[in-house]
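Changelog entry

Holo records now carry the ligand SMILES as an explicit input line rather than a separate metadata file. Below, a converted record for adenosine-5'-diphosphate, shown in the new format.
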Amino acid sequence: MAEHALAVVNLGKLFGGLAAVDGVSLNVATGERRVLIGPNGAGKTTLFHCVTGTLKPSSGQVSLFGRDVTRLAEHRRTALGMGRTFQITNVFPDLTLGENLALAIVGTDRRKWVVHRPAETFEEVRRQALEGLARVGLEGRAQLPAKLVSYGERRQLELALALNTGPKVLFLDEPCAGLSPAERQRISQMIADLPRSMTLLMIEHDMDVALGLADRVTVLHRGRVILEGTPQEVRANPQVRDVYFGHA
Ligand SMILES: Nc1ncnc2c1ncn2[C@@H]1O[C@H](COP(=O)(O)OP(=O)(O)O)[C@@H](O)[C@H]1O
Ligand SMILES: [Mg+2]
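Structure line, unchanged by the conversion:
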């Protein structure tokens, strides 16, 4: 059997009496772009948290490239290639965009424990930080403190921070939320331009963005998968129309 980048088996998450995620199974192929849609409260973010290790699932298993990671801490999953966008609180507002990314680079560098770092290493970090910013279209903003850039540019910085961990499987939770139409267009183009070898799981509210990017779509409703299919199949499905557009 071909190895999946991600396999989720019968995953459940209870919050008190509420089954926020209720027996979800998903197989995502290597290099696939999977978009998760569903009305507010469907359990999309909770599912992401359980898969990436932010939350402990109440039941079920998560495997990454055939390896069971269900009980691994989040940082161990990151080391195995799971990447995700960080919340804005992980950005230091008084540091420049370049410094923010440089800090993240040093933080993921195994050499960080070396106290006497040779000067050329700093040059290398600076170069990598600029490269990382260029990747998300922020090369001209490296010298600006994070607190002075627009909300859309902060979201771009978050994407740069996520890409910095060298993810094989990248999780994006509504990367376009709160953005202007122009910024939305820019970010979704950046996501479309990511290497095809990178497996992508994305939660997206905007149907056009979602169906434009996805190889396959999973529709979640009340913690359960109600449909999985191609964008065309999802668009044509009457139940999805009811559930999704009915609540949107
Ligand atoms: N930490 C939490 N504690 C209790 N209930 C939660 C928590 N997080 C989410 N929920 C509930 O779980 C359900 C799913 O939420 P969520 O995963 O955020 O949905 P979505 O991302 O699809 O909008 C909602 O009913 C929400 O209120
Ligand atoms: Mg959510």
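Spot-checked after migration. The chain has a mean pLDDT of 89. DSSP finds nine helices and ten strands in the chain.
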